[in-house]
Amino acid sequence: MEDENGGGSSSNLDTGKADRSVWLMKCPLLVAKSWQAHPPSDPLPLAKVILSLDPLQSDESSSLQFKMEMAGTETGNVPKSFSLNMFKDFVPMCVFSEASQGKMSMEGKVEHKFDMKPHSENLEMYGKLCRERTNKSMVKNRQIQVIDNDRGVHMRPMPGMVGLISSTSKEKKKVAPVKQSDVKRTRRDRGELEDIMFKLFERQPNWALKQLVQETDQPAQFLKEILNELCVYNKRGTNQGTYELKPEYKKSVEDTGGE
User: Fold this and answer.
1) What pLDDT sits at residue 117?
2) pLDDT one-digit tens code per residue, 151-171
3) What gap in Å lies between CA 88 and CA 114, rounded to an integer?
4) Tell me, what's the pLDDT at 1?
5) Quick one: pLDDT at residue 149?
6) How are beta strands 104-118 and 21-26 bridged, if at all?
7) How far is Cα 220 from Cα 136, in angstroms, rounded to an integer?
8) CA distance 97 to 140
């Protein structure tokens, strides 16, 4: 239906500007960011388009040359001049907009399509910008810190971390039922218990689980969790059925004993 101003409209879409010709332009990301940062209250134009026409060429479309010059407020190595390559052979398109209230409007139909690229006079500047961008992307933000003489503290899980470690189906085992004697024992702080365990292994290198339960007065299941993290279980040999520290922890214990 027609509105009072003569333009077509409907309850969902305003088509008053449907016949207006508009240009569609594909621009580099740095240009888009520069325009988005432009304050809406600033009356200065973002850029200007210069149209050049060669009267000696018979084909009018091929004689047209478009050049865009930025307003000059950009910082860094942003090129100031861009060439606009015009295309007429493209799928018919229309431009739509949506107001904050949700109303849709048709802003016009695309008459010309342009691809924007740095002008020949700015190729050196644009090349420098690309090199800076490449160098910046190659900078590693992650840093490696070498820890000296930490005695294995940073290699051990902190209290509460064991429950966060995911396990595969093969690693899932049935939890052993808690014995009545274990219920009466109160669990120590994990860090405190690990320190006690290291001191025990300073006294002797091999311990059976039953011996450690008696020495620490801790639940057997809780001790097994600690032992699986810190120790190796001997299934055969002269020390069969006992636990001994893993090699990385043995060194820290020996260093401590040497001091």
Assistant:
1) 80
2) 655 566 665 555 555 555 455
3) 9
4) 38
5) 60
6) parallel
7) 54
8) 41
Express as a percent the part of the chain with pLDDT over 90: 7
End-to-end alpha carbon distance in the chain? 94
Beta pairing partners, 8:
2, 15
CA torsion angle for 165, 169, 170, 176 (degrees, to 10)?
A: 80
Q: What is the pLDDT of residue 208?
A: 93
Task: Please say whether the dihedral angle defined by the alpha carbons of residues 103, 107, 108 and 113, taken in this order, is positive or negative.
Answer: negative
Identify the CA nearest to 163 among candidates 187, 184, 190, 185.
190
User: Which segments in the chain show pLDDT lower than 50?
Assistant: 1-9, 169, 182
SS (H, E, C) the chain: CECCCCCEECCCEEECCCCCEEEEEECCHHHHHHHHCCCCCCCCCCEEEEEEECCCCCCHHHHEEEEEEECCCCCCCCCCEEEEEEECCCCCCEEEEECCCCCEEEEEEEEEEEEEEECHHHHHHHHHHHHHHHHHHHCCCCCCCCCCCCCCCCCCCCCCCHHHCCCCCCCCCCCCCCCHHHHCCCCCCHHHHHHHHHHHHHHCCCECHHHHHHHHCCCHHHHHHHHHHHEEECCCCCCCCCEEECHHHHHHHHHHHHC
The pLDDT score that the predictor gives to residue 252 is 61
Distances (CA, A) of 183 to 175, 179, 180, 193, 225: 15, 7, 5, 17, 16
**How much is the pLDDT for 177?**
59
How far, in Å, are 143, 185, 201, 242, 244 from residue 204 at the CA level?
Answer: 39, 24, 5, 11, 9
Q: Is the pTM of this model over 0.85?
A: no
